[in-house]
């Protein structure tokens, strides 16, 4: 069985909308993702509330700055007691190592350090766009693998990528190394701004460690039922 539950992206603008969404899940203990949209409006108090509700939390702030700034920011974020945080691998190995040190120093003694993962190429990026706008002249897969290697060598726990790249990463990077994969859509769903999308079944088949699902659940007519059906697919043997 997969160790991670499907991670629900709580991309809402307010605490009220977030809590009313979560109330539909009654006693279910969830793994939720709080990203920029919600955190910039609600801050640490919502994190404390989600923890009190018994949910695990991926705080997705995608830090990308000079090493000293990321070190200090991570030291502060570690005190929130979340389960996972992230940076952009494009910030480089010194920045990623500084992030890790900040997290280690900021984690209360006796508590578990949050997992630290790095975004490779966003799932909203296509190979064409990467070549044209970032002037990277390799394939998208090679760029992702390079970022994954840099992340692994910097001592982090894994990467954010599309499940389409999970097998490639497994072939080149020693286990255990997490592949946390957004860009999940059910058949027939709108793709929206995502470029590299797969279904939950495909993500499981390709060896993703955890799926991050936003709009397929949050915009569903029946979010609880949709979540449970994704969870069943994800946890099937
Ligand atoms: O770090 C992330 O979570 C992330 C990285 C990435 O490459 N692509 C990506 O979509 N995400 C996040 O995953 C969620 C995907 O949402 P949906 O497209 O609505 O399922 C959003 O909250 C994004 O911010």
Question: Could you characterize what this model shows?
Answer:
The chain is an alpha/beta fold and 237 residues long. The protein has a single domain, classed as Aldolase class I (TIM Barrel). Helix content is 44%, strand content 15%. The chain is built from ten helices and eight strands. It has helices at residues 15-22, 36-52, 67-78, 93-106, 127-134, 140-153, 166-172, 200-206, 215-218, 223-235; strands at 7-9, 31-34, 56-63, 84-88, 115-119, 158-160, 178-181, 210-213. The chain has an eight-stranded parallel β-barrel with strand order 1-2-3-4-5-6-7-8, surrounded by four helices. Helix 7 links the parallel strand 6 and strand 7 (178-181). The mean pLDDT is 97. Bound molecules: orotidine-5'-monophosphate. Pathway: Pyrimidine metabolism; UMP biosynthesis via de novo pathway; UMP from orotate: step 2/2. This is Orotidine 5'-phosphate decarboxylase. It comes from Heyndrickxia camelliae.
